[in-house]
Specification:
8-stranded mixed beta sheet; 16 helices; 16 strands; binds zinc ion
Length: 442
């Protein structure tokens, strides 16, 4: 029976709490209604039956609904190198371990299997969108799209050859093909991913500035990751950020990843140009790269998003954990216990990522009209009791095993803790095969 006043919907989620991130801070005993790909209502559960006739009603009596996490910097396929080389500084880790392993093993098949495994790990920990920078981005697009996860792929570019391309023209051609091939896909966005100031020369960077403006897409680059990087560039006459400014890269299109070394002038420069910063606290800690001054950046009005970086330097793709680390580290670095409070950490991990990727109109908060990219966290577990404030429990106490449901574009990807688009047994077999190959003596 459909009452005259009722409108049809696909899913109604009756949640104990909802943290929409935009609008009201916290809703209690509310329902979120999904029709097709969109959130069409947020209303008190007692009013649900007056307005909506949903095909499916899901009761989540001890859960918190949040916008799905946006992981603003990853190298998803690198999950297959998780634990391959630990406890090393960045350049040793890259030059002696990661780059040699990549030159021997990275292929389309490696990326396909790695990204599928990464997507399983991201879905089960509540991530609905990730920004990626890695070889063979076509395969990343394919694997993410098959898993149903939203992805923004920054097509890589380096001065040196790889299994994917011979030179910068070749890398750029790849990026343009990627953009052509995926431009109509509802889950995939494309941008340029010049690796770092020390691996990409001026000419390709200038070309990227022009092309990114033509295609209206973003540019992601590791910038000021370590003090050593900045010092070496200074010896050649210019800090990396100054060089990027000279080349026209600074602006809202640029996602500057890491930024552990930032002078006061550079904070102002980032704020004035609208350049976005992606903070990857666990990777920076693990490689002892330094500390991004998140609170200083935030107070200056710089937009900061949160990323895990690759699982080879983290070693997981867990945004819940990353959010907690970011909040705790910000307090330590600022010498201020009020720095990056729980609400701000949640915003950084959701809407902050959406803004960095230019997708805040569509995702990043639970708002009527936005796409239904949603994560449910079961706060009924022992380790998140008692509950004075669910957002505090989420940021400071909850673990990823408490993520129970995930939707992207209104489609369930995790239901009661079970993956719906990926087969864990198959993923485990594939990852074992790669471990045997990569772990074998070269
Ligand atoms: Zn990275």
């Amino acid at each position: 029976l459909i009452l005259m006043s009722q409108a049809p919907a696909d899913i109604a989620i009756n949640a104990r709490w909802i943290a929409p991130v935009e609008g009201p801070r916290l809703l209690e005993h509310h329902s979120l209604v999904i029709r097709g790909e969109q959130i069409v209502d947020l209303l008190p559960t007692t009013k649900l039956a007056d307005r909506w006739q949903a095909k499916q009603t899901l009761r989540l009596p001890q859960h918190l609904l949040i916008p799905g996490f946006v992981n603003a910097h990853a190298h998803a396929a690198m999950v297959l190198m998780r634990g391959l080389a630990d406890d090393l500084p960045l350049m040793d880790w890259l030059e002696k371990h990661i780059w040699p392993a990549e030159s021997r093993h990275v292929s389309e098949a490696f990326v396909q299997d790695g990204v599928s495994l990464a997507c399983a790990g991201m879905i089960t920990s509540g991530t609905t969108c990730f920004a990626d920078m890695y070889f063979f981005p076509h395969q990343t697009a394919k694997a993410a799209s098959q898993a149903g996860v939203r992805a923004c792929l920054f097509s890589p570019l380096l001065d040196f050859p790889s299994a994917m391309a011979q030179n910068s023209d070749d890398y750029i051609a790849h990026a343009l093909r990627l953009s052509d091939d995926w431009q109509h896909d509802p889950l995939i966005q494309v941008g340029f991913g010049p690796h770092a100031p020390y691996t990409v020369s001026d000419d390709p960077l200038k070309r990227i500035v022009t092309l990114a403006a033509e295609l209206d897409c973003g540019i992601m680059m590791h910038v000021h990751e370590t003090a050593d990087e900045v010092r070496k560039a200074e010896q050649q006459g210019e800090r990396p950020l100054a060089r990027l400014k000279r080349l026209g890269l600074l602006g809202p299109r640029l996602l500057a990843v890491h930024m552990t070394q930032v002078s006061d002038d550079e904070v102002r420069l980032l704020a004035d140009t609208g350049t976005r910063v992606v903070h990857c606290p666990e990777s920076n800690l693990k490689l002892a790269s330094g500390f991004c001054p998140v609170e200083r950046l935030r107070r200056a009005g710089v937009s900061v998003a949160l990323g895990t970086d690759g699982a080879a330097s983290n070693n997981d793709l867990d945004m819940l954990g990353e959010m907690r680390t970011a909040s705790l580290l910000a307090k330590g670095v600022a010498g201020d216990a009020c720095a990056l409070p729980a609400d701000a950490a949640l915003t950084m991990a959701t809407l902050g990522g959406a803004k960095a990727l230019g997708m805040e109109e569509f995702i990043g908060s639970l708002k009527v009209g936005k796409l239904a990219d949603i994560t449910a966290v079961d706060l009924g577990a022992i380790n998140t009791q008692p509950i004075y404030d669910p957002i505090s429990q989420l940021v400071y106490a909850a673990g990823r095993h408490q993520v129970s449901h995930v939707w992207v574009n209104g489609r369930p990807l995790l239901s009661g803790g079970r993956l719906t688009t990926l087969n864990p047994d198959d993923l485990l077999q594939r990852s074992q095969r790669w471990a045997t190959l990569l772990g074998a003596p070269s």
